[in-house]
Structure formats: structure tokens, C-alpha cells
Amino acid sequence: MFRRRVELHPIRKLKEFFWPSSGWKRSFQYGWRRVWRLSGTPHAIALGVAAGVFASCTPLFGFHILLAMLVAWVIRGNLVASALGTFVGNPLTFPFIFLVVYEVGTFMVGVPVGHVDPDIEGMVQQAGAFDRLLPHIVPLLVGAVPVGIVSGCVFYVITRSGVEAYQSRRRILLEERARVRAEAAAANSTGTNGLGMTKGDAV
């Protein structure tokens, strides 16, 4: 669904991930246009985007799209919209997202706010690294739930209003085009020749 026609070199892929050639602003605009043009009810599309945003708040890197689609399936959201919703999580937003998630998680599990082990690299190299990393993973997992739900609700409202406005404008445009075509067809069927007579009179 999101595969490129021409496969990029791995280094180019990495560059595109951190800084798209079209720029982040145009990438966001393109993504939102894709969401607005999806077929489905505004409610289902907005639920899908909310599921994608929720998944992006979790530290499950590499599984965000799968998690988003699973959540969207459970809440009956649009699956394509859920995949597009994960684009909210990107190299520009992840630092802020996980800072908030970690602070909320440490508050919920009772770890002092702002407590971070400064020697992460040395900690990983030591025996029992997972046991030492676990206290940092748990706050991210716990904090992702409330932050993801709140963020998802915010994007649900934004997306639903945007999709409703787009579908309303599109409906009016299609009705206007249909009316113009109907009027043109009626004019052709009862058209007159250059002398002001109908086609039947000319015969």
C-alpha cells in the first residue's frame, strides 16, 4: 500500500526517514489529504487515525502499524486510516512524545519524576542489562496508555471535523457538476438551430 515504485538505497531510505526530500510540511499535508480522501464515514476514518496515534505513543518500534490496525479493527475504525495515523510519530515528534510518556509513566508507577540513569550505554554492556533497562521500559509502556488515549481523542475530533468538511465540499461539488451536466443534456435535447427553430421544426 505504501511501497514505492522504485526501491530506494538503504542509505537514502534512512535519509528519507529523518528528513523527507519534499520536507516535513509537505509530507504532513500529503498525509492529511490522503486521510480526507479515504472512502468511509468520518467516524470510522477518525477512529482509524486515533488508533494510529495511540500506537505511535507506545515504545513498540517496528510494530506501530500492526498495533494501529489491530486497535482499529477492535474499535471498528478504518484500517488504512490507522496506518496513516502512525505518521504522527516521526523523528521530529518522537522525542517530545516519549518525554511526555515517560514522565506520565514514572508518575503512575511511583518512580521520581525526572529520574533517568545517565549511564545508559554502560548499563546495556553490563550483565543483566535487561533487568536494568526494565525500570525504564515499564514507565514508557504504562505512560503510553493514558497519553495515547488522550492524544487519540484529540486527533479523533480534528480528523472527524476535517473529513466531514472535505466530504461536504466534495458532495456539493459533485451535485453541482451533475446539475450542469443535466442542464447541458436538456439543452442539447431541446436545442434550436441557427434560425431559432427546434430540431423537430427544422425537419
Describe the structure.
With 203 residues, the chain is mostly helical. The chain has one domain (10-186). Helices cover 70% and strands 0% of the residues. It is built from 9 helices and no strands. The chain has helices spanning 10-18, 24-36, 42-56, 64-74, 79-85, 94-109, 120-125, 129-189, 199-202. Helix 4 packs across helix 5. Mean pLDDT is 76; it is low at 14-19.
Salient structural properties:
mainly alpha, 9 helices, rod-shaped, 203 residues
How are the SSEs placed, and which strands pair?
Layout: H1 10-18, H2 24-36, H3 42-56, H4 64-74, H5 79-85, H6 94-109, H7 120-125, H8 129-189, H9 199-202
Helix pairs in contact: 3-4, 3-5, 3-8, 4-5, 6-8
Main sheet attributes: strand count, strand direction, barrel closure = none
Instruction: Report the helical percentage.
Output: 55-70%
Helix vs. strand class = mainly alpha
Q: Would you count the extended β strands for me?
A: 0
User: In terms of per-residue confidence, which ranges show pLDDT below 50 for 5 or more consecutive residues?
Assistant: 14-19
Question: How many DSSP H or I helices?
Answer: 9
- Average pLDDT works out at 76
The fraction of residues in strands falls at under 5%
Radius of gyration: 26 Å
Following the backbone from N to C, one meets helices and strands in this order, namely HHHHHHHHH
The total number of structural domains is 1
Distance between the termini: 58 Å
- Assign an overall shape: rod-shaped
